[in-house]
Design goal:
4-stranded antiparallel beta sheet, alpha+beta
């Protein structure tokens, strides 16, 4: 029914759901539903409360013997037999008995009140035509689409609140439509997860029966939140499936005559062990394999080159393959002299160390940081375009390029904040220091003419230092 356009209640597709207006789940919009709950039902305005009493349930059902408050109402219509001497009994705070009475006493009024009640599916449009909202069963395919839209787009089910304009937007496509409650979305998501797990297990079993073991590859990783309070583990299985076999499993001809690359996520859990040792990691992988009946299925997992991954693979009797991206990124560290002993590039290593120290000075000094922001504002940047220097992080293998690119973008402003000049500091205002030997030799070889004044000499020295 989800994909059947002839299904009763069909009103929109997943594509239209993707155009839903976004909403911040932390946005504290005034919730009008609480006011609605506190308001007295409109139908009670047409009755007068005469007295209250107690109603005791009879029979043998679950309510047998229980008591509940009963209210006795008199109809305000002149001549109605349900007057003060013969009031109408309404059990509890509901309005069912009152509507039953109005259906026979004042049918037009009853119709209008039903349309105005938020609990009734009956509505009346601007032309006076009566229509009923879709039932839950009719809306279920569209609720499924909505959950799929939220899951694929990393949206929050908090958007399903009916006081933020979402319901009005949806009913712009179909006036009988509705939006699912958050609890409904969560239940549907659980059902989808169970259904997908069954499909994945079905494909694993079929592949295992076709090829035997080993028959798959895998990738896994661990990472922590910024607060370092929780660590999550994710494992992805790599399968190359026969299209004819897959078409038979899924009852479709879509994959016939093809090879299908499939990489389902089979584990995404909180890593309970406080230490990320190789033994703990190996134990977690064994538990995942046992859940999916994957013992012996993966011979060569693809991981990063961390030592705990190497040990985990050794414990589980697997051959570790380091992924190409990590190997290429690690090559940057060796080429830049950051890794390896002895360093293969000591000059670049020393330069990046000084550059990182210069960039870090802004995070340690409020004065320098404020001067950097002022320099960027004077350069014509908006307040939301201000950038801060980056410091390389050796644990992130892209840190060197990120630091160089960021500091290149705001280089003039950094030099202006530190020296007062966008081109850097000249030797006249610099603290006395010993020039490197190669610079001293170059200056002695390229000494100025006898008529060169001191200002021209200083400019030539400054230019040489900047170029070096």
């Amino acid at each position: 029914a989800v994909d059947d356009p002839d299904y009763k209640g069909f009103w929109t597709t997943l594509t239209l759901f993707n155009e839903l207006p976004g909403r911040d789940p932390d946005d504290k919009t005034d919730d009008k539903s609480a006011d609605k709950k506190s308001e007295e039902p409109a139908i009670k305005k047409h009755f007068v409360l005469v007295s209250t009493g107690t109603h005791t349930y009879g029979g043998s059902g679950r309510l047998s013997g229980k008591t509940q408050t009963a209210y006795f109402f008199a109809c305000t219509k002149a001549g109605c037999p349900k007057n003060h001497t013969n009031p109408l009994k309404q059990i509890g705070s509901g309005t069912g008995q009152l509507f039953v009475h109005l259906d026979s006493c004042q049918p037009i009024l009853a119709k209008q009140l039903r349309a105005a009640s938020k609990h009734s599916p009956v509505n009346i449009d601007a032309d006076g035509n009566e229509y009923s909202l879709f039932s839950f069963q009719e809306l279920l395919p569209h609720h499924i689409r909505y959950v799929e839209k939220c899951f694929r787009g990393f949206d929050h089910f908090a958007e399903t609140r009916q006081d933020n304009g979402l319901l009005d937007w949806v009913r712009g496509f179909e006036r009988r439509a509705g939006v699912p409650a958050r609890e409904t979305c969560l239940q549907l998501l659980e059902i989808m997860e169970e259904w997908l797990d069954e499909r994945i297990q079905m494909m694993i079993d079929a592949q295992k029966g076709w090829l035997g073991v080993p028959f798959a590859g895998s990738q896994s990783d661990l990472w922590s939140l910024k607060s370092a309070r929780a660590t999550f583990g994710c494992t992805r299985l790599s399968l190359i499936l026969d299209g004819d076999m897959l078409s038979a499993l899924l009852s479709t001809d879509e994959y016939k005559g093809r090879l299908v690359d499939c990489s389902p996520i089979i584990a995404f859990d909180k890593f309970e062990s406080s230490r990320h040792t190789g033994a703990n990691l190996a134990r977690w992988k064994v538990q995942v394999n046992e859940k999916w009946k994957l013992q012996g299925a993966v011979k060569v997992p693809t991981e990063d080159g961390a030592s705990n991954n190497k040990l985990a693979c050794k414990i589980n009797g697997q051959e570790l393959h380091v992924c190409l991206d990590h190997n290429l990124s690690r090559a940057v560290l060796y080429a830049s002299g950051e890794a390896g002993k002895p360093s293969q590039n000591p000059e670049l290593k020393a330069f990046t160390k000084r550059s990182a120290a210069q960039a870090a000075s802004f995070s340690r000094s409020v004065v320098n940081n404020a001067a950097l922001q002022d320099a960027q504002l004077e350069a014509g940047k908006h307040t939301n375009e201000l950038l801060a220097p980056k410091v390389k992080n050796t644990t992130h293998w892209t840190g060197l390029s990120e630091m160089c690119n960021r500091n290149r973008w705001i280089g003039p402003e950094m030099r202006l904040a530190l020296t007062g000049e966008a081109d850097g500091i000249s030797l006249e205002r610099a603290a006395p220091f010993a020039l490197p030997a190669q610079i001293s030799d170059a200056l002695s070889d390229e000494s100025g003419s006898e008529g060169e004044d001191q200002e021209e000499a200083n400019s030539r020295v400054t230019l040489f230092v900047l170029m070096s």
